[in-house]
Amino acid sequence: MIERSYTVALIGNPNCGKTSLFNQLTGANQRTGNFSGVTVSGRVGECVHKGVRLRIVDLPGIYSLSQNRSEERVARDYLDDEPPDLVLNVLDAGNLGRHLALTSQLMEQGLPLLLALNMLDEAERNGVKLDLSALSDALGVPVLPSDGRRKLYRERLLDAVVEQLQAHVVSRSLRIDYEPHVNALLQQLEDQCLPRWQSVRWLESEDDVRFDLTAEQQALMKTRASIESEHVLSIAELLSEGRYGWVHGLLHRVGVVHTERNLADDRLDNLVLNRWLGLPILVALLWLMFETTFTAGALPADWIGLGVDWFSVQLVQLMPASLLRDVLVDGIFAGVGGVLVFLPNVVLLFLFMELLEQSGYMARATFLVDRMLSRVGLHGKALVPLVMGFGCNVPAIMATRSIEEPRARLITILINPFMSCSARLPVLLLLAGVFYPDNAGTVLFGIYTLGVLVALACAGVFARVLPAHYDETFIMELPPWRMPGLRSLLLHLWDRSRDFLTKAGTVILVGSILVWLLQTFPRGGEPLLQQLGHALTPLFAPLGFSWHETVALLSGFIAKEVIVASLAVVYQSSAENSGQLQQAIGQSLPPSAGLAFMVYTLLYMPCLATLAVIRRETGRWAWAGLSLVLGLSLAWVFAWITFHVGQWLL
């Protein structure tokens, strides 16, 4: 029986394990990664513990309540407008010197607080010794161990949360001893009936405070300039100094000990961040990822293909000749089965990407390419959405909300569709396996690299055309190296596989049936699909495409996986199984046209869902239209160059 419901807000610095803890407490499977910027907006989950329903809100990772980035605004507005019953502040136990600064702001505001120290094992491995009881006594709030990757402390943490909520503990506001002039100004503001935390907020970020000041309070603000000129520091910097001074004194009192550094991590950083070796290592890892995706996925893909062919043969033998049998065998099994065979390859690609993210390497790759991105009007903060584009462009474009500068965000949105999403992977795998079976991994690596280079070139052009609003400084925190958790990896792979299978059972299924209908009717004459393909062939003939490839590309507007389904359906008349499908494609196209088809698929129009999210995130259909026209134009030009150069070389 549910006695009562409470709201608990999870808050902490980026990359402190907050979202992993949220997943563990609620049973959700939100995306996590060993780099900052995973959570851009708040998420909500629920759990029931000892008869108490807990509504848990996962707020974005932030360093401070005073800054004016989108993540800070989301967290600050939530705490101001909808104060939770309890704030669960998640901290990295190995980095308390920085993480406790946010804790001090929460305590200044007088919010009911409970601290969860994550990654204690890593802290101890890195030589950090903590006395949680002493820390709790010094702060006056409960401090408990937690582990977002394992359920080691889950019950104990939930017990403490429920106990704190039911005890209705009244939190006391922290009063930090700032610089004397700042203290005097804060006291004068308090004398005007302005709470101390609001006074601090106003002094730190005057433009963002949403409460009104009286005339007397506004007059006091004029003393800011004199204090800042005297100290040659802004009020915000003086407040920050006081806050970190409080943190330093706290850690000294509770006896936090740093015994030794992890030299192995330092040596690994020196290697992968080396000025001369860093980029070659990155390129080698990406090549290995694509090579393994093709070679290791080939055998299970063949097994799935044999299974699809066996079911098709059984249906042909068991069912009498009819329209239903034709749509099942030539439409659904050919189309959906043609896509399903690439599930192992897709899973392997995501496995590699998750390993790079969770180990901490992806954050270091961001650091490596920051200088390159800055030359085209972007910075390292854009890399997270761009890398996410290799999975799906829709959430990747939504992740650009973490980029504050409007021009940089718009450019990142517009170039994101050139990052080859997982929906394009089955098309690329199919064609690479047909024409370049011995070098398929290298070809895949080259295609993905081309997409990145085109994206960067377009970004450079946009940066020259679009006016910049302001320069946004990119300061990056390198997370510690971590061994990826098996449970987290399996959950991510299951989510990706489920999404792929769901799409196969919905969008690809409908697309396959539609293509089959257009390829079948009218009977006794030229099917509608062939009529459409022949009408458009003059536009694509210079690229080496036949009508089969032309109509397949048209279907890709719905979802790129439908291209493979369409090819399977239109070639079904000459291919009775998946192996013969590849043979039919190989006989229809020369290798140069096959490579051109891969390039065209890489660059041409975004899918319908991506166009819709571009419109939503930019607020204008014009930008979505530009993305559509730009993709179609560049795809045709690059495919034409590929086809004609390939005729000489291949």
TrEMBL record:
Chain residues that bind GTP = 12-19, 58-61, 118-121
Which parts pass through the membrane?
276-297, 331-356, 410-436, 442-466, 500-518, 595-614, 621-643
InterPro entries recorded for this chain? Answer: Fe2_transport_prot-B, Fe2_transport_prot_B_C, FeoB_Cyto, FeoB_GTPase, G_FEOB_dom, Gate_dom, GTP-bd, P-loop_NTPase
Identify its membrane topology class: Multi-pass membrane protein
Under the heading SUPFAM superfamilies, the entry gives:
P-loop containing nucleoside triphosphate hydrolases (SSF52540)
Concerning Gene3D superfamilies, the annotation shows: P-loop containing nucleotide triphosphate hydrolases
Give the UniProt entry's GO cellular component terms.
Answer: plasma membrane
Can you say where in the cell this protein is located?
Cell inner membrane; Cell membrane
In its UniProt record, a GO molecular function of this protein is: metal ion binding
Q: Where is the FeoB-type G domain?
A: 5-167
Q: Which residues bind Mg(2+)?
A: N23, T26, G27
Keywords, comma-separated and alphabetical: Cell membrane, GTP-binding, Ion transport, Iron, Iron transport, Magnesium, Membrane, Metal-binding, Nucleotide-binding, Transmembrane, Transmembrane helix, Transport
The record's annotation in PROSITE patterns points to: G_FEOB
Q: Report the family membership.
A: Belongs to the TRAFAC class TrmE-Era-EngA-EngB-Septin-like GTPase superfamily. FeoB GTPase (TC 9.A.8) family.
- NCBIfam families per the record? feoB (TIGR00437)
Job of this protein: Probable transporter of a GTP-driven Fe(2+) uptake system.
Name of the protein this chain belongs to:
Ferrous iron transport protein B
Origin species, per record, is Nitrincola iocasae
Question: Quick one: which gene encodes this?
Answer: feoB
